[in-house]
Amino acid sequence: VGDGQSLETTEERIDYLIKKWPNLAPLLERVKNRSAALSVPNQSPMERFLKRHLSVTQLCEQSWCEIKMAYGFVKPKVRMLEMQKTEVTTGASIHLARELEVKPDVVTVAAVTREDREALKLISMLQMVPALEAGQLVREFPVFGVLEGMFFMGVVDKLYRSDSGELVLSELKTRSHNSLPRPPRTRGHSLQVGMYKLLFDSMVKGSVKRDHLLHNLQLDPNQVLGSDLQTHTRTLGLQAVTFRELLDHLLVVLTCSNLCAIDKLRLEYSHQSSGKLIGTREVAFEEAQLRTKIRGYLAYWRGERVPQGVEVEEAWKCRMCPYEETCDWRRDRSHRLMMVNKRAKLEC
Length: 348
Ligand code: SF4
What we know:
The structure is a single chain. This protein is an alpha/beta fold. It folds into three domains: about 40 residues, no CATH class; about 220 residues, no CATH class; about 40 residues, no CATH class. It has 14 helices and six strands. Strands 1, 2, 3, 4, 5 and 6 form a six-stranded mixed beta sheet that branches. The longest helix is centred in the middle third of the chain and has 23 residues. The chain starts with 9 loop residues before the first helix and ends with a helix. Bound molecules: iron/sulfur cluster. The site of iron/sulfur cluster has 14 residues, from helix 5 and helix 14.
């Protein structure tokens, strides 16, 4: 309430403050713009944040808190500092160390164009498919394709055959606590492996088309691969001069391989400081439920609804959030809760 007026929206509150303290107008206008960036104006978040496709990890972040994810775009410096936290960098180092265990011979290849950089991923996949067919364990396997009308990309941590011959997709998660996480903390992890399975399965079934990748990543199919890359492809016995030739080759290799759909999804939790395995969890795969969830998350990206923050049952997430002090959603939630409590007291 400002001078007896009821100020419902953030914009109304900011306008009130600007009138009251005009010298603070530039700062308050900035706050207003940030607030507008999180609501639904004429542009969808896909358009506003200049996105043509999404990563699987983006949806996992969204499943934690949509407002936090949206703040990450509006306040990139805060997000960058969060990504530099020891837990995140240690997790990345453990992933790299495990990848090097199965790929000891690292070859340096110069990538000149965007097509070259994407070609390196395709070449890595072309090397991993036969290894997987032969029953070997592979790590950092890229996956891509269209889910519910949106192009997604991701990288599967580990694929291998179990003793009984099942194809297992496993994702490594590192934790600072030496214990398995409780279910609310693993929701995003289950979403991640479920989406990886959908993408991997559609790749080996031949549902991924050349144009999906070219169009969504804006790649030139006729781009000639860099000379370093062409030399590398020749040493691997591949005949590809342009990006399209390499991509077509990969799509044929995937669909003609003896690989079938993923049989099992697994989460592996490892202790950050000791590097020891804490435990594993199997993840149930319910395709219809998973697709409904994905559509729900995509509704935000398509501008069909406003982002949602965490509700009071999961308020513990806010205590570890870098936007805790400035979050409008959290403040409004506390206000709503206070009003509910007041009303309950009056009714008593
Ligand atoms: Fe989400 Fe809470 Fe952070 Fe706000 S403070 S962005 S509601 S986690």
